[in-house]
Amino acid sequence: MLKTLANKTALVTGGSRGIGRAIAERLAADGATVAMTYSQNRAGAKDAVMAIERAGGSAFALQADLVNAEAIPALFEQLDSELANRKGSTALDIVVNNAGNSGWGGLADATPDNWNTMFAVHARAPFFIVQAALNRLADGGRIINISSAAGARPLQAVPIYSMAKAAINNLTHTLAMELGPRGITVNAVAPGWIRTDMNAAIRENADMVKMIEADTALERFGETSDIAAVVAFLASDEGRWVTAQVIEASGGYKL
Ligand SMILES: NC(=O)c1ccc[n+]([C@@H]2O[C@H](COP(=O)([O-])OP(=O)(O)OC[C@H]3O[C@@H](n4cnc5c(N)ncnc54)[C@H](OP(=O)(O)O)[C@@H]3O)[C@@H](O)[C@H]2O)c1
């Protein structure tokens, strides 16, 4: 495979499973050194790093529970020290804000605490991760936020989640304006239904699966690699003229 990201360094939050793992694996396969984060699942992160190394890539994992605002400065301290050791530089080229907690609460069950938790991970953390990355991010770099189709087309069942994803879409736009003069592109990728732990319970219901597939132009659930492919394009030089966009990758959900 062509190493489109040779010598680049990427930070991928939530790389221990699901979409984040596929993104970490893909960016590493394309030649980047990947720092991935995890929250609780140390074994998953270790497994993802080993899979990348077995495939000839380079990666390492760092713990950060993004519900806690203090986790971000601590994460960047660890990141600086790992990158300095491995690469002799703390520079970053690509930041992928992917980590997400599920907590699929509706209006009736919502509490201020679960509202705060959802917003902390999906909206506050990406904002402060980018702030912390600013002086480490190379000119010409990339910021890619993993949003959701629900950010632009909210789902009644998950109002808090939909609001948080609308916030990341909005942030994508302001960051693109702020960082454009440095040649840094900022985009969001908005998946539809992708087969991960986040919707494992929904996938146990055969009728729900049928309904989702029937509502999808390409007539199937998405796979994590479908999202990683879009991220790889945006991260590569081929994506250089795309910024401030929310790119829905849903196989054509509810057209
Ligand atoms: N799957 C879908 O259908 C779908 C659709 C649209 C958008 N998305 C978005 O895609 C992203 C990835 O989702 P996924 O489906 O891959 O989810 P997933 O399989 O549940 O994986 C979630 C990842 O986020 C990490 N994470 C969870 N809570 C965290 C916290 N408090 N602090 C730091 N990291 C945390 C997890 O770490 P641990 O392993 O350590 O818990 C894991 O690496 C999310 O932003 C999600 O909203 C997913």
What about the largest sheet?
A: 7 strands, parallel
Average pLDDT, rounded to a whole number, is 97
Order of helices and strands: EHEHEHEHEHHEHHHE
Briefly note the CATH topology name: Rossmann fold
Beginning-to-end CA distance, first to last residue: 34 Å
User: Can you give the helix content as a percent range?
Assistant: 40-55%
Shape: globular
Structural class by secondary-structure content:
alpha/beta
Low-pLDDT ranges: none
User: Which band does the percent of strand residues land in?
Assistant: 15-25%
Features:
9 helices, Rossmann fold, 45% helix
What does this structure look like?
The protein is an alpha/beta fold. It has one domain: NAD(P)-binding Rossmann-like Domain (Rossmann fold, 3-Layer(aba) Sandwich), CATH 3.40.50. Helices cover 45% and strands 17% of the residues. It has nine helices and seven strands, in the order E-H-E-H-E-H-E-H-E-H-H-E-H-H-H-E. Strands 3-2-1-4-5-6-7 form a seven-stranded parallel β-sheet, sandwiched between helices. Helix 1 packs parallel to helix 2 and helix 4 (112-133) runs parallel beside helix 6. The relative contact order is 0.14. It binds NADP nicotinamide-adenine-dinucleotide phosphate. NADP nicotinamide-adenine-dinucleotide phosphate (NAP) binds at residues 14, 16-20, 38-41, 44, 64-67, 98-102, 121, 146, 148, 191, 193-194, 196-199.
